[in-house]
Amino acid sequence: MTGAAPAAGAAQAARQAVSDAFRAEWGKVVAALIGMTGDWDLAEECAQDAFARALRSWTDDGVPRRPGAWLTTVARNRALDLLRRRAVEAVRLREAAILSPPAGPAGGDTSAGDIRDDRLRLLFTCCHPALSLEARVALTLRTLAGLTTAEIARAFLVPEATMAKRLVRAKHKIRHAGIPYRVPPAHLLPERTSGVLAVLYLLFNEGYAATAGAEMIRASLCAEAIRLARALTRLLPAEPEAAALLALMLFHHSRRDTRTDDHGDLITLEDQDRSAWDHDEISEAAALITAASGAAGAAGPYLLQAQIAGCHATAPAAAATDWARIAGLYDQLRQLGRSPVIELNRAVAAGMADGPEAGLRLLAGLTASGQLSGYHLLPAARADLLRRLGRHREAAVSYSEALALARNDAERRFLARRLAEAEAAS
Predict the structure, then answer these.
(1) CA-to-CA distance for 336 and 313, rounded, in angstroms?
(2) What CA dihedral angle connects 24, 30, 32 and 37, to 10 degrees?
(3) Contacts of 335 (CB under 8 A, 6+ apart)
(4) 285: nearest Cα among 230, 246, 233
(5) 165-196: per-residue pLDDT in tens?
(6) 147 phi and psi, to 5 degrees?
(7) 76-130: per-residue pLDDT in tens?
């Protein structure tokens, strides 16, 4: 019995270390394996095997000093073993063994040889114009960020089976079309921009507000999205939407330490300690917005969203938030393309600018459309506006609906508290 407690402690430490390593290292390991083997399915299989082996090995031998290097080595060795078993041609096997990055294309000002980063190569490979926009985003979230098919499906508001088929088709297309694993030359960069920006946007969003699980914030995803966004702005210095997206991320990221309390419970924007926000990031984001706003042409979707985030980040207090300007920016944003989530945010802004009744009228139309059926933030927004009106019994009904739909533990605890408050007040 004396050895039971230490063994249990070692197993728990190993599980936590593997969980931490998955969030921090998955994309690096998969990207490296794809660069080595050119086989997406093999890369994911070997990465998964490495993490499974880590759980057993780290329990017995302890967590290595460099978990990422350990995982990459184990995954690489597994890939080489499988390649041998499958009798892959000798040349390809030798190339895989030396772990050297693929050569960049000839011509152009920017190539894979200029940017020694497997993850950036993976990002651009996933964003090849031969793939549909949704396939580009979904494939990158799966391979680079390690999101499950279910998590990606929720981000797209589609069934899991539908998303699984899209991922399979995208991988097959890359394989059969011979899409190169590289950062493209300069003259091909513009056609990739929208897909890359969309990928980074959803990658950051999943880190900023995880769709499911125990954590509200997946810090490693946010950090990875910001790192890649910085690399993209260096690659595309004249692209205002790249700078705007980085600004949008920084505005949101500046509040990371105030969004949950010591117990991991959600703190709403209006209740956050603004003095604890990262004001260096806010200043950097504001400078990016100024530069992007000065570019020729109409404001794009990321610039408008960054301006909205800037209204929140620069307001000295919640009561000083310029909700009228935010509502106006959402009006501009919806003119660029109708999205039910934009409509939801616009309704909330209208409710804050013009009174809760105005917001509820807009939400009623959105609810009737059925476009956000099953999306927990719709009944949550309705509940909050009803709460502000003092209509606590109706608010309780909507909080109950939102609670039944929410999958993130921190959000569920928050909604449960709001539900209890509304029931007590009704």
Answers:
(1) 24
(2) 170
(3) none
(4) 246
(5) 999 998 888 888 888 877 788 777 777 788 88
(6) -70, 145
(7) 898 888 887 765 444 444 444 443 333 332 222 333 333 446 777 888 888 888 8
